[in-house]
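=== RUN LOG ===
request id: a7f3
mode: sequence -> structure
chains: 1
length: 256
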Amino acid sequence: MKILLIFTLHLISGGAAGIDVIGFLGGWVTIMFSYSDDGRSETSLCKMKSQTECEYIIVAGYEQRNSWIQKDRFELFDDSYTTIILTIRHLSSEDAGTYQCGEAGRWSHQFNLRVIRDPCCLGPKTVSGYLGETVTINCSYPEQFLSHTKHFYKLDGPHIPTMVDTTETQRGRFSISDDRRSKVLSVRISDVREDDGGGHFCGVWTGGQSVNYHSLYTEIQLQVTAEVIVLQRKPEFNSLNTVSFSIFSPELKEVM
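=== RESULT ===
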């Protein structure tokens, strides 16, 4: 059963105009909201169905703070102090719209999610690498992100840490370059290890005063395998060499 929240617009506090969040079809967005703990008893997320109706997606009680709350493709985390984190996975066109986040009736944040379909970012894609070798991963990106700082992420449960970004050229075994002319991000991983395998994303970070977000636009599945060395054995010949010889003994005489 769908639950709708009815309220008037003047009850929305904290940036009623909201911030635009850009996501891509099939990609993910992770949005971080800054707030001061005002003693609220719950943290909720809803999507506007009309100017006066908002459909609840997640309602997290006070006792659920400091833990990830999941509902379908939506995940919410409230650290109890200053940050709410929202992740929406595998974006679809139906996800586009206006959302409210905070405590019901006195929402602290509003954002407008745009979901774009772009040939550059249709995935996921699979890349193969061998243990101990170097693998290169290339991601095309859209025109909207030309001047943004690009990130290369690794999926780790609900966490999505940045392995390297374009503010640096190398971080440990990871190196990165951004060809803005062709709009291609290239990441090289040297000395590939087994735990490098799994899900990764190319994406960007967009900062704001109280809301910032990561838009993960291309998913990469890195398959790491041990290199198989095939030794070609030379054929073995098991032949007998025949040697002709004669034996002469003085006791043996030919009888004429």
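=== NOTES ===
The mean pLDDT is 84.
The longest strand covers residues 211-225.
=== END ===
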